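HUMAN: Quick job: go over this next protein and say how the chain folds.
***
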Amino acid sequence: MSEPTAEPATDAPEPFAPDSFLVVPARSFEDLRVGEVFRAPSRTLTDAHAAAFQTVSADNHPVHYDAEWARRHGHFAPVVHGLQVLAFTAPGATLFPHFIGEVFISFLELSCSFLKEVHSGDTLYPALTVTALDPDGDKGVVTTAATVHNQRGELVLSGRHKYLLRRG
C-alpha cells in the first residue's frame, strides 16, 4: 500500500468561477472597430408574436389585428407593431452586450425610421453596425446603425443606437 501524497494531481481541473463564464471574450471600448457588425438571429414572425406584443404594449389599434380593417385601409394584411420590429434591434438580441458587458454603463438613445410594413410570416434579419467611437475622458460613446431587413432583402427599419461605455 502506498502512502498518500500532499501534492495535487497535475491533471486536476481548474476550479469553476462563475465570473469567468463568458459567452465570448470580454472586450474594451478600445477593442471595438468602426464597421464591426453584431447580428441577431433571424426570426420569422407569427400571429402569436404579434398578439403577445399587443398584450404587452397595450396597442390595440385594429391595423395590428383586424385583417378586414387593414384591407379597407390599404394594407394586404395586419401590420406588425413598429415597436416590435424595433425591439429586434435590442442590443441583447445580438452578442454585442456579451462583448461589452463589463464596460457597459448605459443605453443613451435610439432613433429609427420604419421604411416598409412587416406582416406575420415575414422573416427579419436585424443587425447593429458600429459607425462611430467617440472617446471622452474615461468614457466613450459607441454609435451603431440599427438595421432590419426582411426575407426579400428589403430594408424595413433603419436607425441608430448610442451606448456609453467605460474606457481603459
